[in-house]
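User: Show me a protein chain along with its predicted structure.
Assistant: Here is one chain, sequence first, then structure tokens.
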Amino acid sequence: MSPRIRHHLLTLLCLAASLGARGEELHERIDALLAKDWAAAKVTPAAMSSDPEFVRRLHLDLNGVIPTATETRAFLEDTHPDKRVRLIDQLLARPEYSLHMARVFDVMLIERRLPAVKSYDISAAAWRTYLAEAFAANKPWNALVREVLASDGSDELQPAAVKFYVARDADPHQLTRDVGRVFLGADLQCAQCHDDPRFPDYKQADYFGIYAFLSRMSFHRDAKLNRSFISEKAVGDVSFTSVFTTEQGKTNPRLPGGEMIADPMLEKGKEYVSAPTSTARGVPVYSRRKQLAEQMPRTETPGFARNLGNRLWAMMLGRGLVHPLDLHHAKNPPSHPAVLSALEKWLVEHRYDIKGCLREIALSRCYQLSSELPAGSEPMADAFAVAPLRGLTPEQMRWSMLRACGRLDASFMRAEEQLKKTKPAEVEAKLKDWHWVKENYEALEKTTSTLIAAFTPLPGTDDSKIDPVVDHALFLLNNPKLVDLIKAAPGTAFDRWAAFTDPAAMAEDVYLSIFNRRPIADEAAEVARLVSAARTAKDRAEVLQPLVWGLLLSAEFRFNH
């Protein structure tokens, strides 16, 4: 055996040993488990998504906005075999990832709620900045949850973290329900008065076990500081009575499936760091609420890691393995238990790494399936054998409309040019800085604020449902703010399209900008027909406006597919 062959064999053996030691990657495990389930159920999965499907879907899911025509064209023309892996990593590294995740988790944690007195709320900008900083640093989920649940508004470094409590008026019963739903995937609302007759898993004692962590807290507004805080008493027992059986019970703080926590013995008269008064908030020596912040984000807490895995899966695949997301119980088992277990195990082993988990899901064949139904088959939604059609969130629609019309990127180009004039040495660093990117996004929010208001569901309702109503159609057809988007302006897409003299090139750029795909023959012919009589750039812009408006209002644009 020649030295060269021996060297290659040793290299292969080392690589095999390395792979064996590392074990199967999560995305490979997901695909193997789903393939097994599909075979058992005789389900035929869809084919792999086309490049146009994939590039649009991934940009929406990881950055919250469709790609530009230039980005789409570059991806379609890339012949590298690992271009999908590279795109996943590129989008996860962009500052837009942190901003998008801040929006997603804002909706998940706050559910678009407002306190009874709106002016007492933590501003959306401050809260989203807090979340964006967490995702930019790839802060583990358990650490983020600990901060949110421990916050009373007094931490000068992270005052916005208290919004989870403030948005619910620090109401112990509302918080009990939402702590169970958001962090454990269990809606215990119907167990407040009795054991839930529908779901044997949901006990009244579980509801009041969570309530006991929160029952001593209340809302406090400091008029002098113009700040919102949480006040807490040092005493207060919790008892409950079933309206069905009249059976009574008492409880200390306890998470479902966990042990009851005993209060420490405190010397009488020394229960407070600062006693509550009509003008001052209470700060007890021992805080039950802070115990919740310590007990909830632990591996030992049943459902904590599983709930995160299920929610991340739903974010990327359109529905949870357990669905609805807040009804984990024995009568509503996961559609693919082994997949959910794999996600839960991975998250625990990788210290609740949200970015890493999203990367693994995006790498899976399941995520990359086409949204076109497989021939002769129409699998159930919970089979995950075909990519679902998902309505764009209000935030995704806002930024995608601005991008499709070129308004978003024209704004960034102006900001970049100004930066080159004033701080040329900082240009490269600023382009990668999520703070700078956030400022430029925020500068455009007013132009589409009416769209967000029109498409935002009621606070506390399911944000993922597609529920088109006549008001939505009338808004899209008639709102003057949106009509303004398609008017030609320097640096916008219309300005670019109107400059084309070749109808085929114009059609390609229009469709790459709006649908992130090249036009089919009939679509290209329609563009050519429309501009055939146009002699000037102004004429071309005018005849293109009705077509572009129609494309923006189409189902193809308004869905993630």
